[in-house]
Design a protein that fits this description.
Largest sheet: 2 strands, antiparallel
Number of strands: 2
Radius of gyration: 22 Å
Structural class: mainly alpha
Order of helices and strands: HHHHHHHHHEEHHHHHHHHHHHHHHH
Number of domains: 1
Strand order of the largest sheet: 1-2
Shape: globular
Number of helices: 24
Strand content: under 5%
Length: about 500
């Protein structure tokens, strides 16, 4: 009964409901504008909401997250310009449908399927998270250290051009996360005598810089992207279509939830894999994939919204984010004095069920807002980048300053932005850096606890890792993950399996 009360907190509070609605509405439009990513928006938003009540902040963030993931598909269909990476696959068949005059129908169908996917993801979160949390209580410092390393390396395997670049970016993030005074010895680390670095680099500043400022600079290379005018006709989908593709939607939602629950993946990977599976398993589509097949928009749009609920599972149960947005939400929870992990569901069950209820409410608003305002929407997405990019820079600067009212944070955010831009030019992803900044202190502190338990004996340290069943499984997973990225081992394995 208590869980039901927590679940309906946002439903019964008009202010929380309004924040969720505003967040969802804003997320749809923010996510649809190329250059305004959900990750960037949430990173900037957190700096403005860190003094809010935690429920208020989470209500707004959850709405933007849900709406933003869906919103990227609108420009993919209308303009062949994905508003977010998770909508790349949607453009393959969405834009051909728009060229046939079926843009409104395509948007309506993806809205309904996104709602279904989102609800499946939230239901899975509600069922799976308590089970995983009960198991995770058995984790010790060894397991948390290994989980942190796996989290950083896993997102490295799925980001950028190579595993080596992803791992290097993650290690750089870990180093940034360790700047400041050592929590055990109080000795300065990586400060180079600077007083401003003694307190460390707030991860929100790093997030704003690497996501907000970097993305704004990247958009300078795409100032002249052409916009294609589209006519919007029918929007509400036929019930027969919903019924016909319902099985595909459920399969894609299950796949999206599963992929979203893997640390370091997210909606973009879920959407691409779901599209590939739909293409492989759909027999006799009305038109070939890539020419306007409805299956080609249903699969990715269902999967990327389902991945939202999946991404919350490792974040809330293990303290490891499922994607870049949940990495930022972890930062928000830490700001409010909360520590995501197995004890979160025991010590603050109201927060878990509030998140579940709030995500459910956001998906309902997604269905309502997604089926309205499409004609007006086509005008908003054409906001000139000459206005958009300076606005992003200004908001990023204000957000960085607002965290501690420290002007030096503005310089750090801008510096991280320029650095992130250079890294992207050379094929490095910034996602692993942010994950490293967040997980670095956890890896460091737990490693040192394990070493203290092993009496500073490195041999005993490794013996402890392989003699404990849970840590042994994690070590095996870590070795398999690294081995799968080494060409020699991968080629030999594939040859053996054949």
């Amino acid at each position: 009964m208590e869980n039901l009360i927590y679940f309906t907190t946002a439903w019964l509070d008009p202010y929380l409901m309004l924040l969720t609605a505003i967040g969802t509405f804003a997320g749809i439009y923010v996510g649809a504008i190329p250059g305004l990513s959900v990750t960037m928006t949430v990173s900037i938003l957190i700096s403005f909401t860190f003094k809010w009540d935690v429920n208020d902040a989470l209500a707004l963030i959850a709405g933007i997250y849900v709406g933003g993931v869906y919103g990227g598909g609108r420009t993919a269909i209308l303009l062949n310009i994905p508003g977010a990476p998770s909508a790349i696959a949607t453009a393959f068949d969405g834009y051909p449908l728009a060229k046939k005059g079926l843009a409104g129908e395509a948007i309506g169908l993806t809205t309904v399927m996104s709602f279904i996917g989102g609800m499946v993801g939230v239901l899975t979160l509600a069922i799976a998270a308590p089970i995983i949390s009960d198991f995770a209580i058995k984790f010790t410092s060894r397991e948390y250290m290994l989980l942190g390393i796996i989290g950083v390396l896993l997102i490295g395997t799925l980001s950028g051009e190579s595993f080596a670049k992803g791992a290097m970016a993650g290690a750089l993030g870990v180093m940034i996360g360790m700047i400041g005074l050592d929590p055990m010895t109080a000795k300065a680390r990586f400060t180079y005598g600077s007083i401003n670095l003694m307190g460390g680099v707030p991860y929100i500043v790093a997030m704003i810089g690497f996501f907000g400022v970097t993305e704004a600079l990247v958009q300078l290379d795409n100032l002249k992207l052409p916009y294609v005018k589209q006519k919007i006709s029918k929007i509400i989908p036929n019930w027969s279509d919903v019924k016909k593709y319902f099985k595909l939607a459920l399969k894609s939602a299950g796949l999206g939830t599963l992929i979203g629950a893997l640390p370091g993946t997210g909606g973009d990977i879920a959407a691409l894999i779901a599209y590939d599976q739909a293409k492989r398993t759909t027999k006799n589509p009305e038109v070939p994939f890539g020419s306007g097949a409805k299956e080609g928009i249903i699969a990715p749009e269902t999967a990327n919204n389902a991945a939202i609920g999946g991404a919350f599972i490792p974040m809330l149960t293990l303290g490891i984010p499922g994607d870049a947005v949940t990495a930022i939400i972890i930062g928000a929870l830490y700001i409010h004095g909360l520590k995501p992990g197995p004890l979160l569901l025991i010590e603050t069950p109201h927060l878990f069920w509030f998140i579940v209820g709030n995500l459910t409410l956001a998906n309902i608003f997604l269905l309502i807002f997604g089926l309205t305002g499409v004609r007006i929407f086509t005008k908003i997405v054409e906001c000139p980048k000459g206005i958009l990019i300076p606005l992003i820079i200004v908001l990023s600067s204000i957000g960085a300053y607002a965290i501690q009212n420290n002007p030096i944070h503005i310089a750090w955010a801008l510096g991280f932005g320029v650095f992130g831009y250079i890294l992207k030019k050379y094929g490095f992803a910034v996602g692993p850096i942010i994950l490293g900044v967040i997980l670095g202190p956890m890896i460091d502190s737990n490693y040192r606890r394990v070493m203290m338990g092993a009496d500073q004996n490195i041999s005993q340290f490794f013996v402890d890792l392989v003699t404990n069943p849970i840590s042994f499984v994690l070590v095996c997973f870590l070795l398999i993950m690294i081995g799968s990225q080494i060409n020699f081992i991968r080629n030999k394995t594939l040859k053996f399996l054949r």
